[in-house]
Amino acid sequence: MKRRTVLQAGLAGAATLTLPRASRAQAPRKLSYLTWNISDQEQLFKEEFADFRKANPGVEIEWLDKKGTELPAFFQTQLAAGTPPDVVDLQGTIWVEYAANGALLDLTPYLKKEPEVAKLFNQDYLASWQYQGKNYMLPFYIAKTLLYYNKTMFKEAGLAGPPQTFDDLLGYAQKMAKGEKTGFLTLNFDWLYWPLFKMNGIELLTPDLKKAAFNTPAAASVLERLAKATDGGAINKISWTGRWVEPNGAFAGNTVGMLHAHSSSYFFVKGQGSWINESTLGVAQAPGYWATPTNHGFGISKSTKNPDLAWAFIKHLTSTQWATRFSQSRKLLTGNIAADRAGLDYLRKDDALGAQVLQTQLEHTDRFTGNWPLPFDAQLKDAFYPEIQNAVLGRKSAKAALTDAERAVNRVVSRNS
Amino acid sequence: MATASAVAYRPPRVARRRTRQAVLVWCFLAPSLAIFLLYRIVPLLWNAVLSFTQWSPLRAMRWAGLDQYEDMLHDDVFWQALWNTLIFIASAPVAIAIALGLALLVSSDIRGRDVYRTIIFISYPLMTVAVAIIWRWLFDERVGLINYVARSLHLVDRPIQFLDSFVWALPSVIVANIWQMLGFYMIILLTGLQNIPPNLYEAAAIDGASAYRRFLRITVPLLKPSLFLCIVIGMLNSFTSFDLVYVMTGGGPGRATELLVTYIYKLGFSQTRFDYAAAVTVVFFLLLVSIAWMANRLSGGNVGAVERD
CA 20 to 30 Å from B255, out of A83, A338, B54, B271? Predict the structure, then answer.
C-alpha cells in the first residue's frame, strides 16, 4: 500500500514537471507588499486584499510591515539579496535614491495610459514623487509641516494670532519664554526645520543642485538669531536634538508656545496633553506658507515579475474607496482628493480641531521646500545638520558652522556627481 | 635508537583508534566551525574586499583601490567617532576599579552580602536597549530623577540637558555603560578573590603587613588574570556599544556621542555607503585586534587563564 502511494506521488510529480509551461502558470501569482510602520491597519488591509483577490482570482498577497527604523535597512538587504518586494511603501525622499539607481519602476507610462488615475490625486503632492520628469510613486498618505500654537500662552503674552514672519516668530517666542516656559519648538528630522531658512530666502543648493548655496550673510544672521533665541530659552533646545517623542512630549506638557511639526504630531500631542481643545490650541501655516512635506508613497520594484499586477494593486490601494476607509480609520490625508474630502467630513463630526489640522495640509501646497529630489539626500542631511546643531547649540559660531557645512555638503555633492 | 623507534612505532590498532578519535573530534567540531566560517570569517573577508571597491546594493561593484581609505583621512566625522570610541574604551578601567571596590565589599563578612551581590549583578542581564531607555528617562530634563534630585538639593538652578549637551552627552552614556557592566565585572573579580587562599592573608597579617600592603602585594597580583579578562571584555564591549548609544542619543547632539560602530551603521544603512562603511569597519577591526593583543601581552598572555593544580 505504502509503496503504491509513493509510486503515485512520484508519477504525479513527474507529470507536473512535464506539463507545458502555460499550464504551470496557472499556479497562484504572488505579490509581496512591504509597508512602513502601519501594522495597526491590519484589519483594513485584510479587507483590501480580499477585495483585490475578488477582482484578481488566484493572486496571493504576502504582506510584511517593518517598524520605522527597521525598514530602510530591511529593504536594502532585500535589494542586495535580489529579493525586493513587488510593492513597497517608502517615506520622505528616500525613494529618490532607489529610483535614481534603477530599483523602482517608472510609473509614468502607466499614468499616461490611464490619465484618470493621476487625476485622483492632489497634483502638488503627486509631483513630489517625480525624479527627472518621471513619476515613481503613488501617494499612500501625506503630511507637511505646520505651526501649532498654544492659545493660552499666546493670550498670557498678549499675542493676538500666529506669527506672519520669521521676526514675528522669534519675537513671539521671546515674549512667551519665562522660567520653565519656552516659546518655540521645531521637529528637525527629514529637513522639517528647513522652512525656517526658506522663509528667510535661503537656498540649500544652487538651482542646478550641484553646489552649496547656503553660506551667505543672510544664513549666518538666521543661524545667529536661532542660536541666540535657543540660548535665551525662546527656542526650546529639544528642537535641535533630532527625536520625535521628546519635542512632541514637551509641547504636550503645555509649556511651549509654538510647535513647528507635521500633522501627525497633533494626534501624538493630543494623546498626551489633556489641555488640548479648540479653545487652547491653534493651527496655522508657518510664516511665508513654507512647509516640508513628509509623505508615504507606494512604489513598484523594477525587478517585479508582475508589474501590471503590482500596478493594479497600488491603484486598488489608492482608489477612492480604500483611501477613504484608510483616511477615516487612521485620521490622515491620503492625497486622493475625493477620499480626503470624505475623510475630513467624517473627522469634522468627531474631532473638529483634528480636521482643522488636516485642512492645513491641503493649503498652500505650492510652497513645499526641503524635498529636493536628490539620490544622496540622506548623505546631505548627515553632512549639513550636525553643523547646524553646532551653531544653534552654541558650540561653533554661525559663520564657522556654515563654512564647515558648506565644505561637507560640497564634498557629498561632488562625490555623487 | 632502539628506544626511539619503539616509541615511534604504533601498533595498527592504536593508530586506527586515534584516527577514529580524530575523525570524531572533527565531526563534533565541524558544525561549529562551519557556522564560524560562514558567519564570521567569510563576512570578514568579504568586508575587506568590499573596502577596496565602490559598491552599494543598487550599483555594480567597481574596483576603487585605496579611495575609501583616502576618504577616511579627510572625514572629520570618522576622526570624531574614533576619538569618542577611544574615550569610551578608556572608561572600562574606571568601571573595573569601581567593580573591584564592590567585589571587595561584598566578599567581606558584611550582613546581607548576597542581596548586595544580586542587586549589583542585576543590571548585567538586562537588555541593553532597556538599560538605554531607563537611563534616558533618568537623565531626562523634565521628568528625570537625576535632575529632580539635583534641583531638590539646590545643586543646579536649571535642569541639565544631559543627553542634549555637547559636554554631558558622552559622559552620560558612559555612566549608563559602566552601570550595566558593573555587575559582570564584579562577579568575575569576586570569583578571582575567592580563589585567593586565605592563608596568604593570614601569613601576611602575622608578618605585620597592613591591609593596604596586603591588597597591593597579594590581592592585586593574584587577581591579575581576572582583571585583565575584565579589561579585555570591557574594551570589546566598549567597541560594540551600538544599541546603548543608538537608543540614548543616536550619536548626537552633533557628533558628540558618535562611536565608530554607530557611524558604520549610519554609513551603511542610512547613507547607503556600504563600501566606505566596510573600509571604516576594517580600521575598526584592526584597532580592536591591536588593543586586544596589547591587553593580552600586558597580562602575560594568560587572560582569563584557569590555573591548574
Answer: B54
